[in-house]
Write a structure and sequence with these properties.
This is Minor tail protein. This protein is mainly β. The protein is built from one helix and 17 strands.
Length: 224
């Protein structure tokens, strides 16, 4: 079997080759912090329409960028309840990625290796005979592109990390992650001498702990 390598100067590189390369570099998903607004779907309150927020995403090695709020319209409700799905659809034959609606009852995503590839943004419950979509019937199904594992000092932590960003802090000598509001050790350091464990207060002490014994209290005394 011949060996192929790319990209190099003066060499044509195909769409298929590039997508194979980039899907190894980044997961399929929304390029945003977890729970962020990118490609978020919501009911407009006007008929069977939904709003999709701007965003950036990667689908099987291809990129899609939206810079304005888009509107999608669901098919009219029927006499029975159903579920629809809003997806981003990669269509290599059309050289495009766009929004599409999959109408129930079969709303499984198509995810081929070379052809159509769909990534779900939301599932919508369409109740029987409704004329407008209720906000509480839109369920977020966005997946997010992976965050890179990093290494830094306390002073050189990422300035705008996404939730879940993981890295090794060489100042503290610990792995830490961004909760969305603060950097937190992945594995806590020294545990407190008293902690809750499976509903019990656990105390490790070489001498009898102070306080009144109680049914939910466990005392461990080291032998040395």
């Amino acid at each position: 079997m011949p060996i192929t390598s790319y990209p190099f100067d003066g060499q044509d590189t195909t769409e298929t080759q590039y997508s194979l390369l980039f899907r190894e570099l980044q997961d399929t998903g929304i390029a945003d912090t977890y729970g962020g607004p990118s490609f978020q779907v919501s009911a407009t309150g006007a008929g069977m329409t939904l709003s999709v927020q701007p965003g950036f995403a990667i689908l099987r090695g291809h990129a899609v960028s939206s810079t304005a709020v888009e509107t999608v319209t669901l098919p009219d409700a029927g006499t029975s309840s159903r579920q629809d799905r809003v997806v981003l659809r990669l269509d290599p034959a059309a050289n495009s990625i766009g929004l599409a609606v999959l109408q129930g009852p079969d709303i499984g995503q198509t995810q081929t290796d070379t052809g159509i590839y769909e990534m779900s943004l939301a599932i919508i419950t369409v109740d029987a005979n409704v004329t407008a979509i209720d906000a509480g019937k839109v369920f977020d199904e966005r997946r997010y592109a992976g965050s890179h594992v990093g290494i830094w000092t306390t002073n050189l932590r990422p300035v705008h990390p996404r939730r879940g960003r993981l890295g090794c802090n060489t100042t503290t000598g610990r792995w830490e992650y961004w909760t969305g509001t603060a950097w937190t050790d992945l594995i806590p350091g020294t545990a407190d001498n008293t902690t809750r464990w499976n509903g019990y207060t656990l105390t490790v002490s070489t001498s009898t702990p102070s306080g009144t014994p109680s049914p939910d209290r466990i005392w461990i005394q080291p032998t040395s």
